Amino acid sequence: MQPEWVIECCRQATVIPVVPYLLSAGFSLEGRAVARGKTSQRPIPITDRVLYNVHLHLAGGAGSGHGASESEREEWEALLRASGAICTTLAKCQCVVSLGNLKKSFVEKARALDLPIVSTEWVVQCLIHQRRFRTNAHRQFDFLQSTN
Known about the structure:
Layout: H1 3-12, E1 26-28, E2 33-35, E3 55-59, H2 70-82, E4 86-87, E5 95-98, H3 104-112, E6 117-119, H4 120-129, H5 143-146
Parallel strand pairs: 3-4, 3-5, 5-6
Antiparallel strand pairs: 1-2
C-alpha cells in the first residue's frame, strides 16, 4: 500500500479501506518473489492485526545522531501502532526495531536484557505475509547481521 494510507489511517484514527492505496505487497524473502497483497473492505479488528500486543522499542531514530529523521520515526511508530504493536521503552519491550545505526552501548544494553534487535525488514515481511515471523527467521531480520 502507499504510505499515504498509513498517514490517513492515523489522521482519522481508524483503519480505512486499503484498496485505493494498494501496491504490490512487496518482495517476499520467504517466497523470493513479488508478493500479492491481501485485501479486505472491512477494518481489521485490533486483536487480529499481525503485531497485536507485541511490545516494541524503536531505536536509532532522531536525536540519536544516527538513522531516521523525526518524521521517519513518527511514520514507523504510526505503522507499528496501526499493525497492533505497542511502542514502549527498552525496559518494557520484547524486541528492538532499529531505524539506523545503533551506539555500541545501546546494543550492549539490549543484549544484557536478552532482547533481539531486528531491522525494519522484519516488520515489512510480517506485514507482507500478515503473520509474525520469528525474529531470527531470516538473516536480514537480524539488525546486527544485516549491517555487516
